[in-house]
């Protein structure tokens, strides 16, 4: 199979021909139809993720068709169109038994713990616990975007933050995660504020439903700007970027008893950011992480997409080839193009 592989961190990945994968007893092999390019792939390539063993094939947001199944797989067959959460649970540990496969202690992560989907084929373990059947109405490129950013945002906004109709939600960073969070919060009836440094991204935030936007470079203090718009602070705030500044602001701009959800990854030198803990205590703030979403929660998300309440296809800004993904991956630390890039040419 054709695949993108790197054998050293921070060294340019290559497009190579590698042996086709075979399924484990509890796994499947998927012919990749589309796979999203995400900042987490950049973190992995930089060596920020301790799970990655070299040489490595990245890619964790995928959709495609099952082409081979292991002997123990009961719920999926060759020809099924599927996607999979980027954190896949083992199905056997106590976290999985409690329905929290997203924090499984033996998790399978394509593109991190195992080779991923920047390839013609990808092997996925624990298939019965994690694969999700795709309806015909959701194409591969849209479904690929659900595997990480949109699903993680759905869990962050709907499940972790318990965002309610009429509440104010501040979304710091309007890349793929942030735009997803704005779209989901709007569908749930909340009032979303998009915050970014790029007017182009803020325009997209408004197109996704944001009722207000703040360009953090043109106001004296984004925290005060959020307090003013919301009349005292946001009920919910999301750091969708993953940076010490956006993390701090996202907690600081909450109203009393507000909920912050950290979605953007904080790795490497950013892993221990400053937090306004006196305010967390005095105002009884709640702080959550959000890391993927269980396969069984996809039903709720996909039914909202099916009836037109959310349109994640709007977030896709470019469809690129595997070759074009090499420079795009390496450039993800710099200011990226608005929206989500999806690899659809192999
Ligand atoms: Zn488990
Ligand atoms: Zn991702």
Automatic annotation (TrEMBL):
Q: Which residues form the Enoyl reductase (ER) domain?
A: 11-343
Tell me the domain of life: Bacteria
Q: Which cofactor does it need?
A: Zn(2+)
Family annotation (Pfam families): ADH_N, ADH_zinc_N
Is Cytoplasm given among the entry's keywords?
A: no
Q: In its keyword annotation, does this UniProt entry include Magnesium? A: no
Task: Identify the keywords attached in UniProt to this record, alphabetized.
Answer: Metal-binding, Oxidoreductase, Zinc
SMART domains for the chain: PKS_ER
Q: Which CDD domains does the UniProt record give?
A: Zn_ADH6 (cd08260)
Q: Which family does it belong to?
A: Belongs to the zinc-containing alcohol dehydrogenase family.
State the protein's name: Alcohol dehydrogenase
């Amino acid at each position: 199979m054709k695949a993108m592989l790197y054998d050293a961190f921070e060294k340019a990945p290559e497009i190579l021909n590698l042996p086709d994968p075979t399924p484990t007893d509890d796994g499947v092999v998927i012919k990749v139809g589309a796979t999203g390019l995400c900042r987490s792939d950049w973190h992995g390539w930089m060596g920020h993720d301790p799970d990655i063993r070299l040489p490595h094939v990245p890619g964790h947001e995928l959709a495609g068709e099952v082409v081979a199944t292991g002997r123990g797989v009961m719920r999926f067959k060759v020809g099924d169109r599927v996607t999979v959460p980027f954190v896949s649970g083992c199905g056997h540990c106590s976290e999985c038994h409690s329905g929290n496969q997203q924090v499984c202690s033996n998790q399978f992560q394509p593109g991190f713990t195992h080779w991923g989907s920047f390839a013609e084929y990808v092997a996925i373990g624990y298939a019965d616990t994690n694969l999700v059947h795709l309806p015909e109405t959701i194409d591969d490129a849209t479904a690929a975007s659900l595997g990480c950013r949109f699903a993680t945002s759905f869990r962050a906004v709907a499940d972790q933050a318990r965002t309610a109709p009429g509440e104010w939600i501040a979304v710091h960073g309007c890349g793929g995660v942030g735009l997803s969070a704005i779209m989901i919060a709007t569908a749930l009836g909340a009032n979303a504020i998009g915050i970014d440094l790029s007017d182009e991204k803020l325009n997209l935030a408004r197109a996704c439903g944001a009722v207000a936007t703040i360009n953090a470079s043109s106001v004296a203090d984004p925290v005060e700007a959020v307090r003013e718009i919301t009349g005292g602070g946001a009920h919910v705030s999301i750091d969708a970027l993953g940076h010490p500044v956006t993390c701090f602001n996202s907690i600081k701009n909450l109203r009393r008893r507000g909920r912050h959800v950290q979605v953007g990854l904080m790795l490497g030198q950013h892993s221990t950011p400053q937090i306004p803990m006196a305010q967390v205590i005095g105002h009884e703030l709640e702080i959550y992480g959000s890391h993927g979403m269980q396969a069984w929660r996809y039903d709720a998300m996909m039914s909202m997409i099916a009836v037109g309440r959310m349109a994640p296809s709007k977030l896709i800004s470019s469809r690129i080839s595997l070759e074009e993904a090499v420079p795009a991956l390496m450039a993800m630390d710099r200011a990226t193009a608005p929206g989500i890039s999806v690899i659809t040419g192999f």
